[in-house]
Task: structure prediction
Amino acid sequence: MKYKAFIYLYVLLFLLTGSTCKNNANELGKSIPEIEIPETGHPRILLLKGEEAQIRNLINSDATWKKMHDAIIIECNAMLTQPELTRVMVGRRLLGTSRELLRRIFFLSYGYRMTYDNRYLEKAEKEMLAVSRFTDWNPSHFLDVAEMTMGVAIGYDWLYNQLPENSRIVIKEAIVEKGLIPSTKNDNTTWWLTTDNNWNQVCNAGMTFGALAVQESYPTLTNEIIERAFATIPLSMDVYKPDGVYPEGYGYWGYGTTFNILFLSAVEKALESDRGLSSTPGFLQTSDFLKHMIAPSGKNFNWSDNGLGASLSPAMFWFAQKLNNPSLLWSEKQFLNQENFSSFKGIRELPAIMIWAKNIPLEKITEPTEKTWFGQGSNPIAIMRTSWTDPNAIYVGFKAGSPSVNHGHMDVGSFVMEANGVRWASDPGMQNYESLESKGMSIFGRTQDAQRWTIYRMNNHSHNVLTFNNQHQRVNGYAKIDSFSNEESFTFAVSNISSVYNGQIKQAIRGIAIKEGKYVVVRDEVETLEQQTTLKWAMFTFANVELQDNGAILTNDNKKLHLLVKGPGNVVMKTWSTAPTNDYDASNPGTVMVGFESELPPNTKTTFEVLLVPEESLSSAEFVDKPLSEWK
Result:
């Protein structure tokens, strides 16, 4: 607490003071002559002078990394014919332009340093000059400034010795005037300095890259910015405590954590120390979190504002290198095994993978030994699977936590479930922010009456949770993982989720298990208050649903899953439409909610048990019929 108080005081004082050759992909791997680089102190960010040789050795000795390198160069060639970026706003954001600038400059600067092809240098120069002439980089939405600054800083630093002096002056001034100085303003645009979410990580990383790039010209300003980053980025690194769960989920892990790694990697190289930040409890462990987040189908466990898709994560190679643990990359290995690497061209930090992977032998990426993982924190989760190698394996992700976390949904107690390569129990994921903001919606409120909770994909009516009397979950509720077992015959996690239904029921406890490696058990134990209560048990699915007495048959891709229900005699099986009922809600084509309702008398304890059984295991499926307190 004392350290956090110091951080906030530091930021407050800082703000109040107002501190102001044309090689192509087929020719790669041939001997490229070294050129003499003047001693100017550049490059100093991520890839130092002479370190290109290590990457050349990598691509000359490993076909996978040669293919990755070639994919980057091919995309550099494609960029040559694209017009320079212009200042195009989408709603209140310039972020799309900023991200594309970062991608182009990272790729082109890498391309030049690896091939000395002047086309890449000239294109990068044109792109940096174009954005340097923008009126500003949209400080009202500071992520835009951060990503733009990082991109320009990489180009300025990596290409410094080849850029004409007049171009260097224009670019340097833009970094300072449009990037660094706006970050010192004492106004509502710099709120990210005191938050613990991904904005802190992204903005501090962007400003640090900018400061490192121009440090010799503006030592006072840049040193203050670097020191400020060291003082404030721990706020966002604390959210990984105690076990490595990133509360914003898979996609935002990819955003916030990647920029955090870019920051750490940059200061390690330029300043020869990260001052112990990488040892923050939970931070290095978050690599295990991400490894488990990717399911056998290749989709991710996508709670909250996250889509289903998963992709290669360059940041994971930093973790594997840092921990000397190639097995962390098991889930990433599937992406490296694909034939075509062109799908990676949208990853704007992709060239960094060639830096972080250079000391990791791919043959040492071995199958993980553990099939389960759980972590506490502000959004605890548990993950279970029956195999790392079988594409038909059962996979379950179970979420506790709170709706009040950044990007949170009313999804406490929700789960995803796969078997036979099908995501049977799914999650609707995020809705595009601009589609909501363009209709006047305020989408980031966290109070109980916030507009956010009127949005279908964000409230509990679209998630795999319990709902009582058609009410919303309570945003000030919180649930942890109360018990967990990795016993293969009965792998389970249990969470007391009562607080998110405060005032609606007296108690609700949910347990989820994989039994004998064959099917999934979902058990809910509920106690009502002094009024009759309608319980709704629902599951979001892309499958076709055929209702039956006390169950349903789900069909997808010519495969079947049986949903079997055991509860009081008044259970009524139902489906619910996922079609939007408000003009601002996104459509959810091909999906349906399936489950049941039950009327519960006052002051009553009731138990519901649901089995999710793949067709081939139906004959052996049995209800557990054991209280959650006795699950062992």
Remarks:
- Confidence is low (pLDDT under 50) at residues 1-38.
